[in-house]
Amino acid sequence: MNAPIAPPHNPGLDPGLGLDRELAPDPSLGHGLGVLDPAQTAARLPYPALAEAVAQLLQDPSVSVPPRIVHPLHGGGVLFVMPASDRRLAITKLITFVADNPARGLPTIQGDIAVFSAVDGRRLALLDGPTVTARRTAAVSLLAAQRLAPRPEGRLLIVGAGVQGRAHLEAFHAGLGVQEVWVASRSPASAQALVAHAQALGLQARHVTDANAALADCPLVVSCTPAQAVCLHARPRDDAFVAAVGAFTPRMVEWAPEVCQHLAAHGTLLVDTRDADHEAGDLLQAGLDVATLPTLADAVHGRVARRAGPVFFKSCGWAGWDLAAARCIAG
Question: What's the rounded Cα separation, in Å, for the pair 290 and 320?
């Protein structure tokens, strides 16, 4: 995500992977894709177009997404295996998540997304997994905000200044026109780096040291911390839209249980998919019945009645979002 965006091209496969020829194009796609590095993957996934691809996917009855495999690793990390398909494409996402990798100088998320023709089974592309994960997660939050945010223009508070913080900053700027952002992070250096990136995009930006106090001043909030412990205890504003991204397993948490309980009683809660019923750590640890909450598909189909209080969108991830990215890239 930090690499500059390069013009798209169609390189051969990486000999270091033992693949020494270009992937054969699927005639139904009109062009070959091949192996895309992070910059090439990002260049093909502009946030507004990706958010629209997500909305279209949620209206396509041919989409099939089985439950993902979450396989614990001996070192404490997790291997995710996430397939999905529609009439034209089939994808499998293979990524690892290792929370303490930044201390090793390595990304938290690593891996790839293989794209196949659902018609003849040929492999069409290999996409950079972390780049797709960052951009499709932010695009999903953007779509939810486009449909439900009471004040989509912001100001925006980002809690957590890592890859997801950067992606959400870019997505909300590109898709909502946000012009002002506050950044809170346990790492002052990371916060300052994200502030500098926002300023380079032409936004007003500042580093804030108290995320809980900043909630009172920000109608848009994105929490994308490592989610190893509660860090947000204050209530969002009544006109706030919150995208809670960091906690995507039952044991992970960012928001205090009492805040989630208040939001359930006085605001509008929704989740990205029904997979969140057993993955939404913030809501599960608050004792909420997640299975009764509406999903992003309900919002896209106009079935979510927004109450007077804050909107809290809990995002846990789904292979369908990666399929939407593959569709966006394939055209």
Answer: 20
Q: Which amino acid appears at position 72 of this protein? A: P
Residue 132: strand, helix, or coil: helix
Q: pTM for this one? A: 0.88
Distances (CA, A) of 87 to 3, 49, 84, 91, 273: 33, 20, 11, 12, 21
Token pair in block for residue 43: 């260049």
Tokens of 58: 């949620």
The CATH homologous superfamily for domain 134-317 is NAD(P)-binding Rossmann-like Domain (3.40.50.720)
pLDDT in tens, 177-223: 999 999 999 999 999 999 999 999 999 999 999 999 999 999 999 99
- Classify 295 as helix, strand or coil: strand
Looking at the domain that runs over 15-132+321-330, which CATH code has it been given? 3.30.1780.10
Sequence spans of domains, the chain: 15-132+321-330, 134-317
Please report, to the nearest 10 degrees, the dihedral formed by the alpha carbons of residues 278, 281, 283, 285 taken in order. Answer: 100
In 3-state terms, what secondary structure has residue 26? coil
103: number of Cβ within 10 Å? 8
Distance CA 192, CA 208 (A): 10
Residue 109, strand partner residues: 97
Beta strands in 175-302 (DSSP E): 180-184, 204-207, 220-223, 228-232, 241-244, 253-255, 268-271
Residues ≥6 apart with Cβ < 8 Å to 239: 150, 151, 219, 310
Say what the alpha-carbon torsion angle 201, 202, 207, 210 is, to the nearest 10 degrees.
-100
> How does residue 305 score in pLDDT terms, banded at 50, 70 and 90?
confident
Short-list 99, 217, 112, CA closest to 160? 99
Crossing angle between the packed helical segments 163-176 and 47-57, to the nearest 10 degrees: 90
Instruction: Tell how far CA 73 is from the center of its chain.
Output: 23
- Beta bridge pairs of residue 91: 84, 115
